[in-house]
Design goal:
Blueprint: H1 2-17, H2 23-34, H3 39-44, H4 55-86, H5 107-120, E1 125-126, E2 132-134, H6 135-138, E3 158-160, E4 165-167, H7 172-181, E5 186-195, E6 207-217, H8 222-237, E7 243-250, E8 253-262, E9 279-288, H9 290-295, E10 304-311, H10 312-320, H11 333-336
Parallel strand pairs: 1-5
Antiparallel strand pairs: 2-4, 3-4, 5-6, 6-10, 7-8, 8-9, 9-10
Helix pairs in contact: 1-4, 2-4, 5-10
Length: 343
């Protein structure tokens, strides 16, 4: 036991003489003396070799030795911290901090917000509705007959039948709910996600986003519709963009038209996106069908209106030249980082 006590005194002298001016040296002290394989633990392991009658006295020596090592470690640690704070190597807290990566909104949200901003300047309010809809608001109120192909399981995700509940196939259902609860004048846009049972490819997806618009008032004409959409396109793509309307058919509008703009990717010269025509369809539109107005108790002899709907993915594709719709939902950071500088 006497030999061990002498060894402990030597260790104390070593600890007392140990100097540590940096956190690395303090850590070296801790490992050497207080670590799991340190000298303190090694010495305490000698307890098993001490005779029983001497264990109490030796235990007191060991406890004092351990406390001495811990106190010396705490003192060195405090001293090293003071050196770091006040020494010449101290960090200058007035310097700029570390740079953090800057995130951004998703490209679809960027474009959706821009669309909303444009139409708000024209006096359109924003209306939203449920993504799970009943058959009436999604189809019946919009003048879609029961045998219309859009009702087929090939196009629609049905959740329940008899009664029919489904994932909405367009945000026209929001227009229906607005007309159900509000009397003219009505001027709203309806942004949101919609679902259709389609094969996922570079040009199509089973879910996508729409912004639909509705304006009902007295003496609303097709000229009002055209000028509204002209304004939107020029604000979104620039004054240089060319526009054309083509006659079309939609059950909820009459007359109806699809609107094309000159391809923003090839400049109208022809490419895969515009199918080498120089034109790209961006939305459908038309005057609200009188039967749709009557479905909600709106006098079609007094009020008229127009409606339109566009896919946010298509607008984003043209604005930022995105060649694959699947990129929007794959969460590929390499793709999303390209929009960091977009406001």
């Amino acid at each position: 036991m006497e030999q061990i006590v002498q060894q402990i005194e030597q260790y104390k002298q070593e600890m007392q003489a140990f100097e540590a001016h940096t956190p690395d040296l303090v850590e070296a002290f801790r490992i050497k003396y207080l670590g799991t394989k340190g000298l303190v633990k090694t010495v305490m392991g000698e307890m098993k070799n001490v005779p029983v009658e001497q264990k109490k006295a030796f235990g007191q020596v060991l406890n004092e030795f351990k406390e001495f090592a811990e106190q010396r470690y705490a003192l060195l640690k405090e001293h090293a911290g003071e050196q770091t704070d006040t020494g010449t190597s101290a960090k200058d807290i007035t310097l700029p901090g570390d740079l953090f990566p800057v995130g951004t909104r998703h490209p679809l949200n960027l474009v959706k917000n821009q669309i909303i901003s444009i139409f708000r300047r024209l006096g359109f309010a924003v209306a939203e509705g449920p993504e799970i809809e009943d058959d009436w608001h999604n189809f019946g109120a919009m003048n879609l007959p029961e045998d219309h192909p859009a009702r087929d399981m090939q196009d629609t995700f049905y959740i329940n039948q008899n009664p029919d509940w489904l994932l909405r196939t367009h945000t026209s259902s929001v227009q229906a709910r607005v007309m159900e609860n509000q009397k003219p004048p009505i001027r709203v846009i309806c942004p949101g996600r919609v679902y259709r049972n389609e094969t996922i490819s570079a040009r199509a997806h089973c879910f996508f986003h729409q912004v639909e618009g509705l304006y009902i008032d007295e003496n609303v004409s097709f000229a009002d519709l055209k000028q509204t959409l002209y304004f939107f396109v020029q604000e979104m793509f620039g004054q240089h963009v060319k526009v054309r309307f083509r006659p079309s058919y939609f059950p909820f509008t009459e007359p109806s038209a699809e609107m094309d703009i000159s391809c923003q990717i090839c400049g109208g010269e022809g490419c895969n996106i515009c199918k080498h025509t120089g034109w790209v369809e961006i939305l459908g539109s038309g005057m609200v069908h009188p039967k749709v107005l009557e479905n909600f108790g709106i006098d079609s002899t007094k009020y008229t209106g127009f409606a339109f709907g566009m896919g946010v993915e298509r607008i984003t594709q043209l604005k930022y030249q995105v060649n694959d719709l699947r990129l929007y939902s794959q969460n590929d950071v390499r793709f999303l980082k390209q929009f960091t500088g977009v406001i």
